[in-house]
Amino acid sequence: MSSFALARVARTRALPVARRAFFTTSLRRTSGPEHEETFEEFSARYEKEFDQVQDVFELQRNLNNAFAYDLVPSPSVITAALRAARRVNDYPTAVRVFEAIKAKVENKTQYEQYVEELKPVREELGVNLAETLYPEGVPRP
User: Fold this and answer.
1) Which residue, of 33, 57, 93, 108, has the fewest CB within 10 Å?
2) Residues 18-39 pLDDT 10s
3) Dihedrals φ, ψ of 48, to 5°?
4) pTM over 0.90
């Protein structure tokens, strides 16, 4: 065997791996007991998030996050979301916000209350409801 071949074989030999623990015994430092976010804090946080939206991706990500909770966002959060949709020129998402509300509320009366309370904002921004765009019996695209 040539010296070149021996060097090559020596290089490919596996080196021993240092043993590592699969867990840590150190304590995780936290800021104290878990803080439950109140509905008012939730609303203020998402209003701020929607006020800072600069593109469609951020808008849709924030909407997904806001509607992922086991609650219906407040009308002030929905207003901020609709204004953000208008700012980034995303009309379809603005219409779908109302569809998300309809799916999230417990009954039709609650949905109608949201629609009524948000009517001035809808008219100001020119956002129609899906029910207006696609009356019953008309197939959706």
Assistant:
1) 33
2) 555 554 444 454 555 677 889 9
3) -65, -45
4) no
